[in-house]
Amino acid sequence: CIPVNARPGFCTVQGCAPGQCGAFYTCCGDCDPAVASLLPFEGSACVPEVAAAQLSNAAGCSCQ
């Protein structure tokens, strides 16, 4: 997963599985349905490791 302008961000590739995202990224999915529509991805996506904890806490996502 290569972030735009070499800056960490959400990858455009969605539908990841644990271990598919590469260095510095984590696959997050199974988010709280009440919050899922507010997220910039559907289902699952590779997110920067630094954002994974926030998604786990704030949106109830499972990040691996």
Can you put this structure into words, describing what you see?
- The chain is an alpha+beta fold and 64 residues long.
- 23% of the residues lie in helices and 19% in strands.
- The chain contains two helices and three strands; from the N terminus they run βαβαβ.
- The protein has helices at residues 33-36, 49-59, and strands at 25-29, 44-48, 62-63.
- The protein has a three-stranded antiparallel beta sheet with strand order 2-1-3, covered by helices on one side.
- It is globular.
- The two termini are 15 Å apart.
SSE topology:
Blueprint (H helix, E strand, L loop, with lengths): L24 E5 L3 H4 L7 E5 H11 L2 E2 L1
Antiparallel strand pairs: 1-2, 1-3
Compact overview of the structure:
By secondary structure, the chain is α+β, with helices and mostly antiparallel strands. Helix content is 23%, strand content 19%.
